[in-house]
Amino acid sequence: MTGKSRFLPGAWLVVVLSVVSVPVSAQAPANNSGLDSGGKAFVAVLPLAGEETEMIRRFHDGIMESVIDLQKYNPRVAAVPPGSRIPTDMPPVPSLAGGARYALTGGVYPGEPAGEYYLQLWLWDMAGSTMIYTDDLVYDDINDAMESLPGLVEWLFSHIHELTVQTPADNAWPDPLFVLGARAGLSRRWYVKPDERSPGASALNLEGGVSGTLRLNSLFSVQLELLLTGDTLVYRGLESGPSGDPVLKNKKYTNVSLEIPVLGKMNFRVGGIRLSPLAGFYASVPLGKTEYRDKDGQKDTLSWSVFPLGFTAGLEGAMPYGPGMVIAGLRYNTDLGAMSINGGERKYRRNAVSLYLGYEFGFFEGKRLF
Q1: pLDDT at 6 exceeding the cut of 90
Q2: pLDDT per residue over 213-225, tens digit each?
Q3: Residue 17 contacts by C-beta under 8 Å, 6 or more apart in sequence?
Q4: What's the pLDDT at 370?
Q5: Over 80: is that where the pLDDT of 244 sits?
Q6: Residue 30 has what pLDDT?
Q7: How many whole angstroms from its chain centre is CA 238?
Q8: What is this structure's pTM?
Q9: Residue 218 DSSP one-character state
Q10: Using only C-alpha atoms, what is the Rg of the chain?
Q11: Nearest to 125 by CA among 41, 19, 22
Q12: H or E element: which one contains 155?
């Protein structure tokens, strides 16, 4: 098959036929989409041009069979008035296609050497009256040409690129308006006194709580959390003893607080995982007294307070599992002020890195706030 083409006279017929509407097919399409009831696209097959009557008849029948064999199209013979000349190198007027999505035109012509012929076919997209592809079949034996005809037809139709509309899968990515979750994990904390340049103490504590998230749009959401967390501060240092000599002291302070972060989240889907960078501020509320204990076994309860605000930032990942989503995250917190124990006897600023796991449930799937 080659790409050569010939342009035949007859463009004047397009103007005439665009004014005069004629019935064109033995069976018109059942709807305006150009598809039959089985979803196959109608193809209007117009008469082939040329003087080789017997060859044209055999090619016409072969084209109909070849289009059917593609199993995606429903060919229909266009009923053209006798004696009409149809330009093969121009799209047929819509009335000739009879509402079909595609149309085939062509002709049989003698070649340069004696005894050689070629069949040229044109495939048109009637939705925009544009050419999809054209090619021809050169032959000197009609029987050989009939064997090659299905390949030519398949080659032409292979250049049709349909827009595929994919139906969302049953396990489509969840998009709830409101999300309620719970999480727990470990929080590594460092304590820096006002006169220290690096942390003088650290501890590993448990942390956990609940969260509620409101989706503003597909990218942004706002999250409020209620987290129970604790501090374990062990102070080791030299202090003056009863006789005035320096004595090594080991003092342990433990307390519990409620942290209330308010976060802004950006949500990105990477494959089957949701990645959410987040940042915001948290308020700290002391719960109860600070428990005090030294190495000699002495115990006491002390008052304490903490600067109410801090900054937090991190990254959270989530993936669907069961009726909700499993979440995991890494978070960094830093106080904007100092924690004060026993009226300022001990002052520290807290920094923390938290690693957590959790689970969340979505509600009002697909609903929108605005």
Answers
A1: no
A2: 999 988 899 999 9
A3: 84, 93, 95, 96
A4: 60
A5: no
A6: 41
A7: 61
A8: 0.51
A9: S
A10: 40
A11: 41
A12: helix 142-157
Contact 184, 358 (CB under 8 A): yes
Phi/psi at 43 (5° precision): -125, 120
Q: Is 94 left (phi over 0), alpha (psi -120 to 50) or beta?
A: alpha
Instruction: Map 52-93 to HEC letters.
Output: CHHHHHHHHHHHHHHHHHCCCEEEEEECCCCCCCCCCCCCCC
- For tokens 């266009």, name the residue: 78
Q: What is the mean pLDDT of residues 251-275?
A: 92
Q: What angle do CA 56, 53, 112 make, to 5 degrees?
A: 80
Strand, coil or helix: what is 164?
coil
CA distances from 28 to 78, 85, 93, 254 (A): 10, 22, 15, 85
196 near 347, Cβ under 8 Å?
no
d(C-alpha 297, C-alpha 177), whole Å: 53
Exposure of 298 by Cβ count < 10 A (0-12 exposed, 13-18 middle, 19+ buried)?
A: exposed
Whole-angstrom distance, CA of residue 331 vs CA of residue 310: 13
